Amino acid sequence: MTQRYSGRVALVTGAASGIGRATVLRLAHEGAHVVGCDVDTAGLEATGKLLAHDGYTATLLAADITDPAGVQRVVDALPGGDIDLLANVAGIMDHFLPVTELDDDTWEHVLAVNLTGPMRLCRAVIPAMRTNGAGAIVNVASIGGLTGSVAGSAYTAAKHGLVGLTRSLAFLYGPDGVRTNAVCPGGVNTGIGRTATVGSQWAFDRLSRSSARAVRTADPDEIAALIGWLGSPEARNVNGAVITSDGGWTA
């Protein structure tokens, strides 16, 4: 179990902190050759130091997944172009802005990070997975992709879109051996809080009725553990699943 990723290649976005960092660490510990990316160079350096402390390495590079050139740079870093697991983890919040207060720049940036970037990465790696007849994609969505009551309009739309993308890929490419699943966390102790500062107090107060039902805040490694399982052969019969990990928030 501890080496179930031995000889396998994984690409992880958002590798500088939170769930992305926890996923890099977990997969490296389980034997994977990990390629991780983020725009936060200082955070990537910290991830590398944590790996080195435990005697592991990964290919960590600064890249912006909202830029097609950044996506290509990450894909080019895959050894021999091979890939077994793509974990689309990078994500940002939208300051709880409702549509009547939402500016175009926020809308476009939130969708670029949370939906368009993951789509481009999926588009880039699926051909190699189809050629190999095997591969796994895990998209980190959110319970905000299942309900409208936890975030602003841009984040909610983007995460609903990511769930839809997941199901589309699962249906279309599952027969070729490519499995695509989504993880929908509730509250997680990550650095996403920088984009979760309140931009609309009335919207935040209304959304707080939902957040009051949250039981606990998860540790990033709890989500990373689910990503690792979904990407492994143990989950070979799981395709198109949208799995909540929210402590019962949406129960």
TrEMBL record:
Enzyme superclass (EC): oxidoreductase
SUPFAM superfamilies recorded: NAD(P)-binding Rossmann-fold domains
Highest taxon of the lineage: Bacteria
EC number: 1.1.1.-
Pfam families per record: adh_short_C2
UniProt keyword list: Oxidoreductase
GO molecular function annotation: oxidoreductase activity
Family: Belongs to the short-chain dehydrogenases/reductases (SDR) family.
Cited PANTHER family: DIHYDROANTICAPSIN 7-DEHYDROGENASE (PTHR43477:SF1)
Protein name: SDR family NAD(P)-dependent oxidoreductase
Source organism of this protein record: Dactylosporangium vinaceum
